[in-house]
Amino acid sequence: MSLYLLETLESRGQLDLLPISVQERLRHNLRDNIERGKRILEESLRINSLLLAESVRYLNLKGLSLSPDFVTDLRYRVQYDHDFLVHPDDMSRAYQLVQSLGYVPLRKAEKVTTDHLPTLVKSTGWTWKNNLYDPAIPAAVELHFQLWDSDFDRIPIESLARVWEQSILVRIQGIDFPVLSRELALLYHTLHALRHLLRNDLRLSHLYEIARFLNHFVNQNQFWEQFASNLETCPKSREGVAAVFALSKELFHGGSNRRLLQWIERELTDAAACWIHCYGRGEALDCYRKSKSGLLLHLSMVGDLPSRLYLIRRRLFPLQLPSPAEGRAPQADRHRLRSMISRRAKYFALVSERCVFHAGSVLRFLLGYPRWLVQLYFWRRPSI
Known about the structure:
With about 375 residues, the protein is mostly helical. The chain has 13 helices and seven strands. Strands 1-2-5 form a three-stranded mixed sheet, with helices on one face. A two-stranded antiparallel sheet has the order 3-4. A two-stranded antiparallel sheet has the order 6-7. A hairpin with a 2-residue loop joins strand 6 (about 165-170) and strand 7. Helix 5 packs across helix 8 (about 235-250) and helix 6 packs across helix 8.
């Protein structure tokens, strides 16, 4: 969010309100991110050109396609990977094509249920230098085979089924990028934020970008009517989208379309409204990773008891070890013994930290769940 803060302060002529050292740090971060953005663009053009030349059926997700609807200026947005939705029949071929550009599968400690094939990244030997905007951080490539995992999250989402029929082309640097239509781009970006919210790893920037979209299209009545009509046959989509929209507006105030506000008010469940009031704002600012409050919202969106028990077991008693957070790209040469010992020690510390966190999460959940039920029982929702 720091670069979005810089953008806002610059546009208002208020950057001088910050200490000189903070101004210099923000400008330094922006310079790094601009350089990083150039590399991201070059890589994206290279990958898109190859996939188009080989007649692969695919769509760009997020990234460059977010401008100008979600992001006014991509220089202020931090991007760490390239996301593509690939047609199932072309998935294997697309994976091999990306590898032909020098990308290799990122080593992981275990298999994790995801919506994409194993992440690909270039073998540059990069190491973490305490700089989130380091231009040398290799951008990963994720080839998605679906946009929502209903089995994993136990929430049936059917509104993303027609992405191929409703895709469009946008021209970037002379290349026609296949992307989601504007309505589906908003729907996917919102459901993507919902998924991270339910899993307690939502970035504040996700909600900020959605709020920017809502404000940018504040007077587009026809757009909102079409957007709402696309969700008519999928109740869970309406429920999830309304929750994310309401949370975005709670955190980032701005103009709102009257019909959209009425739609949110109608589709927002009492449980979601109560959760936003009790947990949404505070934990969005304090980082959702520090708690598992998202499980409360998740349980309210799941109807049957077996699914709820499954979610509680998976979230409070995970059976998989965490992926190693090494802060480095894979290297082609053999690791030295000292490096291997260092990685093992860091991974042991990570596993120990996560065990302590999950143990505390179980205790906090057992103590907090009855309190949540009481809050929900007495909840009286104000209008948005």
